[in-house]
Amino acid sequence: MASLTDNNNNQEESSPLLEKQVERAESNVAKPVKAFPDTQAPVKSPAPEHNGAAIYGWTADGLPLVHGSVVGEPIQRTQWNSALCACLGRNDHFCSSDLEVCLLGSLAPCLLYGSNVERLESSPGTFANHCLPYTGLYLVGNFFFGGNFLAPWFSYSNRSAMRRKFNLEGSCEALNRSCGCCGSCVEDEVQLEQCESVCDLATHIFCHKCALCQEGRELRRRMPHPGFNAQPVLVMIPPGEQVMGRGA
């Protein structure tokens, strides 16, 4: 019996299946089992360069792009819809409004100025706050100096505010575009704004009524009157009279 058990043990030890099981057990002990499948390590994105090449795009001229505009190039200004001396305006669907502006600027500039400020600020109630001081300066200037020399000092700031709000072309930029002069003023933004403010004052002093009319035409084409922004009223129409009749 002892010899039979020894033979069985020898056969079990020499069994190839047993050897494979032992090798698998040893391999499992040697190599730890991974809890998660193999994944590739995340690739780190390169750090943004400080020279602007990685943050911004580039144009064909080698200038970086920032939010769709080119850094280093001047901002394109918008030209006025009508010239300073175009008193009758333009032949479009605002033609009747241009004639009204021309009449107000010639006969009652205080009303035109108050209407312009009211449209620019887009808030009702500002008409009287600007029309009355303008009227007082207009009467004092005509009474003591024989002309409207005080009101332009009060009204020229409205032209500067319009130019900044709508990005309109100023007098210095217009001269630089047509004649090539005032180049030093156009290059510096602070100096350009100071020069344009002086030109706005000069325009109101020497061409006051034309300046008011030009501003009125521009505002009526760009902004509606604040009084037209009221809430719509719902009108209930009663049904018509109904008559009962016998069917045929």
Task: Give the structure's gist in a few sentences.
By secondary structure, the chain is mainly alpha-helical.
Detailed description of the structure:
By secondary structure, this protein is mainly α. The protein has 10 helices and 3 strands. It has helices at about 1-15, 15-30, 95-105, 110-120, 125-145, 150-165, 170-180, 185, 190-205, 210-220; strands spanning about 55-60, 65, 70. It has a 3-stranded antiparallel sheet with strand order 1-2-3, with no helix packed on it. Strand 1 and strand 2 (about 65) form a beta hairpin. The longest helix is centred in the middle third of the chain and has 19 residues, at about 125-145. The model is unreliable at about 45-70 (pLDDT under 50).
Structural class: mainly alpha
User: How are the strands of the biggest sheet laid out side by side?
Assistant: 1-2-3
Q: Regions with pLDDT < 50 over 5+ consecutive residues?
A: 47-69
Give the CA-CA distance, first to last residue. Answer: 121 Å
Shape verdict: extended
Helix content bin: 40-55%
- Please give the number of β-strands: 3
Radius of gyration over C-alpha positions, nearest whole angstrom: 41 Å
- Main sheet properties: 3 strands, antiparallel
Q: Please, what is the average pLDDT?
A: 75
Instruction: Give the strand content.
Output: under 5%
Order of SSEs: HHEEEHHHHHHHH
Count of separate DSSP helical elements:
10
